[in-house]
User: Fold this.
Amino acid sequence: MDHQVKVATLIPGQRTAAGPLADDIRRCVACGICLTVCPTYQVTLEEWQSPRGRIAAMRAVAEGRAPLNERFAAFMYDCLACRACEAVCPSGVPFGRMVEAARVEAERVVRRPLTVRLSRWILLNWALKSRRRFARFVRLLDLYRKIPGRRVLAGIAPGLKMAEAQFGQATDRVDLPERLTPAGPVAGRAVLLTGCVMDFWFRPAHLATARTLVAAGYEVVIPRDQWCCGALHFHNGQPENGRRLAADLVRTVLNYGPDVIVTNSAGCGSVLKEYAELLAETPGAEAAVEFGRRVRDIHEVLLAAPELPNLRPVRRRVVVENPCHLVHAQRLAGVTRQLLGRVPELEVIEPRDANRCCGAAGIFGLERPDMSARLLNDKLAALEPFRPDEIVSANPGCLLQLRTGARERGWNIPIRHPVELFAEGLADG
Assistant:
C-alpha cells in the first residue's frame, strides 16, 4: 500500500515523512558533484541511483508529491551508504544520517523476498542480541555448508550463496588476554572493542591490535562482557535495536575507566563516534557523549603515539584498500598508507581507486548480490595488475568480501587487517 504524505512545506528542524530532518534535505542544491564518486551511479548512470536522486525522492515524499511506497524503499536500500558523497559535498549534506532516517520510514512499506526477510530477522533480530546467540548463528552457518542441496537453495536465493561464501568461512579462534601491561611507562588505559563479526572471524587482528597498543605504551583491557555496537541495526532501519546495544556497550566499557576506547573496525568506528547524536534522546545521553569523546580508530592511536619501538624490516608488496567508513565517515583518508609506511622495506601501494566501495556495505551483499558482485569484480580487476603479496583493509565486511572474490579468482594471497602486518615489524613478533 502507498502511504500518501500530506506535508506541504519543509519546516527546518522537523523530521519529514521520509525520515530525514527537513533542513538536511534543504541543504542539497543538486549540484551533482556527488555523482562523480557514487558507486551505484557510476555503475548504472541512473539519476535515482545517485545521492542527488535519492534526496530528490526524500523531498518529493516530504512535500506530498510522491507516495511512501516500495519504489521509495528501493531507492533507499539500493544505496551502499558508503558516504563518499559526504566527503565531496560543498554544502555539507549529511547524507549518511539522512539515508538511515529514510530507511526507518521505508521499513513501513518495503517488501522483501521470504528468504531475505528470514535472513534479516535471524541476523538483526536474533543473532546479534547476544554473544551466545551469535555463537549459535555461526554454528548454524557451519551446518548449512554441509547441506547437500544448498546449491539449489542458493539458486533460489542468491543472497544465500553470498552468505555462505563470506560468513561460512572457518574462523580462527585465537585466545585473547583480558589485560596487557607495557614494561615501561604507561601512557594510559586503552579498552579494546572486539565487536561481533570482528571477534568471531578476525581474532588475530585483535591480538595484533593489543600488541601494538602495548608497544605504544598503553595498558590494554579487553572486557569479556562487551558485545555488539549496533552499527548494522543503525544502518538498516532498526535504530531502536541499535540504541539498546549501544547503551549496553557504553555502560560496560565506561566501567573500566578507559582513557581511550579503541576500535579496529571502520564501520563500527563511524557509529561509535556518533553515539552522542544517536543516543541524544535516551537516558544514557551524557554517558554516550563521554564515550564518544574517547573513541579512536587504531590508526589514530598509533600515528599519534609519541614513541614506537624501532620496527624491523618486512620485505613485501602490499596493496591498501580503504574502507568507506574509514575514509568518508571518519575522514581518515590515507592513514593505513601512513601507518604501514613506517615499516622498513615494506612496499605500500594505495591504488587510485582505493577509496571506492568494494560492494560489501554491511549486509548489502546479502540483499543486493548482483550489484555487490559487480563492484567487487571491478575492485579486484583494478588490483590485479599490481600483483601484490598481500592485500589489507581495516573493516571486517570488506575483508570478507575481498577474500570471497580472491578465492573465486584463485588468488592465493593473504587478505587481512593492516594492523596484523604492522605488528609483524614489532621486535617481539
The longest helix spans residues 239-254. The two ends are 60 Å apart (CA to CA).
